[in-house]
Specification:
Shape: globular
Largest sheet: 8 strands, mixed
Helix content: 10-25%
Radius of gyration: 21 Å
Strand content: 25-35%
Order of helices and strands: HEHEEEEHHEEE
Number of strands: 8
Number of domains: 1
Mean pLDDT: 86
Number of helices: 4
Distance between the termini: 57 Å
């Protein structure tokens, strides 16, 4: 085998293909390419029984979504995780917010506690963002949002899924993330 000719052939092909790869469309503004998830829950995939196995019983409200919603709080009561299920009990929305959700009353707090809900687990690229992250941190990690309507609600979409539109909204107060809503709405 003539190794110099073979190497020259591969280099020719490589240099012919490289310009094409630079012409590929770049990711659109406000998009990410990773599955939306928090605390092991993936909207559009995880079902209600899996949520309970991951986080415990929590507090259940049957009048949310199509098949109900569950609330969990961390042991320190610094954050709330709200999971809403839609058709066939599949999770369609996961909300992580600072503080205890006002819907929970004082008698429900102990039952809503989950030792497996850790608000500091993070989200975003490399899980670098958390509740309390600044707008600057978000822009550095995710880039510009798809939109800012209203100004304190930033939307990002995932471009990895083709069947179910998935997106997440970040809500800010005083320039810091106070709530994140991951959504895979029923089609």
């Amino acid at each position: 085998m003539n190794w110099p000719k073979l190497a020259a052939y591969f280099l020719t092909v490589l240099f012919a293909v490289l310009p094409l790869s630079s012409q590929q469309p770049k990711e659109k503004r406000g998009t990410v390419c990773w599955p939306l998830h928090f605390s092991g829950i993936v909207p559009g995939i995880t079902d209600g029984s899996q949520v309970q196995r991951l986080l415990g019983e929590g507090i259940f409200y049957k009048d949310e979504g199509d098949t109900g919603g569950r609330y969990f709080i961390d042991k320190a009561h610094t954050a709330t995780l709200h999971v809403v299920s839609f058709t066939m009990n599949v999770v369609g929305e996961v909300t992580v917010r600072s503080g205890v959700d006002p819907k929970l009353n004082a008698t429900e707090l102990k039952q809503a506690e989950s030792q497996w809900f850790r608000p500091d687990d993070g989200f975003g690229n490399w899980h670098a963002l958390h509740l309390g992250s600044s707008e600057k941190d978000v822009l550095k990690n995710l880039g510009e949002p798809k939109n800012r309507i209203p100004a304190n609600d930033w939307r990002y979409e995932t471009v990895c899924e083709c069947e179910i539109p998935e997106y997440f909204d970040l809500f800010f107060e005083n320039g810091h993330v106070i709530k994140v809503v991951f959504s895979a709405p029923a089609g």
